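Amino acids appear as letters; backbone shape is given numerically. Here is one record.
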Amino acid sequence: MCKLILAIISILFFSCSSETKKDKTETDYVPKLVILDSLMIERLTVPSVLDVSPDGITFLMYDFKTSEFLLVDINGVIIDSSILRGDGKNQMGDQYFVTANFISNDEIIVQNFWNVFRYTIDFELIEKKESPYTLITRNVGGGRSSYIFDNYLYTFSVDKSDEKSYHQSEKDNLYPFMQIRNYPFLEIVAEASFPPTSEMVKSPGEYLNMEPVLKMKDSKLFALYPNSKELYTYSFPDLELIDTLDLNPGKNFKQVKPTLEDDPPLAGFFKNLAGSDFLNFHFSNEYLMTWYEGAAPQNEVDGLPRESVGGEEFMNIVKKYKKPFYQIFKNEKKLWEGELEVKLFSIKDKLFSFSKPGEDPNAIEKDIQTLYFYELR
């Protein structure tokens, strides 16, 4: 990796003391993000980071423009690349991939909605197996509907033996979507439904995003559901719920309302636009950081025509209001909540961004893409 030399940019202070940047009910604590390192990749487009190898020295990435999977080392060198979509040797067919994860330092698992593909680190196909489950997600190309933890595969899914009786209705929010499977046999060893205190159980219906973000820490599994304001802790691998942290988001958070059976077509997209989803969380030293997206005012959402979903008018409102708001906790106490001048991402124990704070990542076209890695102090 490329070490940053200038000490003046190694510690970044984000003071959010104004009303527009900070909830007035919070303390005067000023969070510090410390740039630890950076990684530069010779690439015209910004790749998406899918996973980090168990030893932490290899990144699995995907370039949506070229449809290439990339293996990148800690020095930014592209070790290998491959286009897996297609009908050739080692390819997965025409279906788009949903998730991709390291099984070990030497193997990768890639899934679509129908099959599980096991690859060597050189993208040589080892095994193709029909999935005994269907991943439940609207997110493809690196979604959070499956993870690898130790020798277990987690899936947010419906077992295919249940599909005929499964329907997305109020009662189905009690289905055990969270499933731990042994690997490589893919048999369920534990499963869990949404927690009783979660928004999905308290306000049943259909949500655009239901699969949680997961992190493993101290042999416990932490789950952040996008539509609920709590961080849940489970034992692993048996998925027994052992703790709940109320995240108590401030005024910029608006609860997403579920889509009901009598709602008009596309209602879920407008409800999601007028509500907030939790996006991610990260453990750093003794701190917990979470972040959620803001919500568009209901009157502006109501003014959009039904056919505007995905169009320019709809996306302009997304760009204006759906920005991240961050929270920092210590010992389960919220210390701060507000905006940062950088968009953060988290994969496993890596907290990173694709631009420095205050820098517009799209201002100029670059032939080198830089990832900046952080910790909280």
